[in-house]
Amino acid sequence: VVEIVRSIVFNPELVRPIMQELxxxxxxxxxxxxxxxxxxxxxxxxxxxxxxxxxxxxxxxxGSGTIESLGQSVTGWKVGDEIIINSQVSCHKCDNCVKGxxxxxxxxxxxxxxSWAGAMSEYIKIPAKNITHKPSHLSFVQAAAIPMxxxxxxxxxxxxxxxxxxxxxxxxxxxxxVALYCLQLAVKxxxxxxxxxSSNEKIQAAIEMGATAGxxxxxxxxxxxxxxxxxxxVDVSISSNGETLAESIGATKKGGKIIHxxxxxxxxxxxxxxxxxxxxxxxxxxxxxxxxxxxxAIKYISVTRFVPQISKTFKFEEFEEAFTYLKEGKQLGKxxxxxxxx
Length: 342
Ligand SMILES: NC(=O)c1ccc[n+]([C@@H]2O[C@H](COP(=O)([O-])OP(=O)(O)OC[C@H]3O[C@@H](n4cnc5c(N)ncnc54)[C@H](OP(=O)(O)O)[C@@H]3O)[C@@H](O)[C@H]2O)c1
Ligand SMILES: [Zn+2]
Known about the structure:
- By secondary structure, the protein is α/β, with parallel strands linked by helices.
- Helix content is 30%, strand content 28%.
- It contains eleven helices and 17 strands.
- Strands 3, 4, 5, 8, 9, 16 and 17 form a seven-stranded mixed sheet that branches. It has a six-stranded parallel sheet with strand order 12-11-10-13-14-15, with helices on both faces.
- β11, α6 and β12 form a beta-alpha-beta unit.
- The radius of gyration is 20 Å and the shape is globular.
- The two termini are 22 Å apart.
- The model has no long low-confidence stretch (mean pLDDT 96).
- NADP nicotinamide-adenine-dinucleotide phosphate (NAP) binds next to α1, α4, α5 and α8.
- Residues 90-91, 93-94, 96-97, 105-107 line the site of zinc ion.
């Protein structure tokens, strides 16, 4: 019987992740214990490390694995079932949850932070509501790459932007986990996608994946370049920081939508409210996904046999290298830690 588990934990004194041995978590009656096979990194892991948090927490919003044990009231699952974790934890009781808007939950949180211990651990305990069957065509490593980034991309594109086939979409910073899923989903839908990136190699790769054009935001003027590519502007723009929000306001056509989901890079220095008014732009925030969107997204992955783009896989003991790789922004797609020894 396992009693001690190794976990990747934020250490507030060192202000970095360390590997630590913790007691195996005790289950509440509506929870399941998962033997984690793989866990993915998200930019959130860097945000949490750089924030001024004073208490330790176990990292990891995303994971896949097998059920090790079940709380007394859990039904419909059995030990050994292969599962994927839903990173959005909601109360299921507040008015927003009852309406199905779980990402507006008044107590909403993500796994892998101060509220909930995450999946970068040999075992994780989570509410049974937070597991879904792993799509059978995906490996555990591929499945671990899905939850937070794919769910966020799904909600942003389909619920917030209501993106339609034939529409033109601008995705800022395509190298990231969420951004790359936006590209893949939008291309499959039949949208015309223009991307920006800090890297010409990533732009080239995005074009091979179906983007029609790319702009290097490090050495080109995004708004000027976009005017050459699509003079009337884009229908929808996906923005990830203050600078990209300013560019999206310039790049989006009259009546268009800007979906803002992130805070990498520079904060906003100036909000061009005149242009927002004159173009009647709709600027919409987007946060993770609801439980039904997550189920829909996983069904889509199974039906279309969608395979996530994994940038690099690290062993559990190589977690520091994985965090460095994320920090340096080298990835095109997801970074995954494989906890199972080959
Ligand atoms: N709202 C939500 O629910 C939600 C969910 C997940 C993530 N997020 C947030 O979304 C952001 C990205 O997360 P992730 O996990 O996908 O990150 P990631 O894999 O670490 O990727 C970082 C991204 O930032 C881009 N980037 C960095 N500086 C930029 C700049 N100046 N202009 C344009 N793009 C820039 C990079 O683009 P290139 O590499 O192509 O240059 C890359 O796309 C983070 O802030 C994260 O907290 C929000
Ligand atoms: Zn709620």
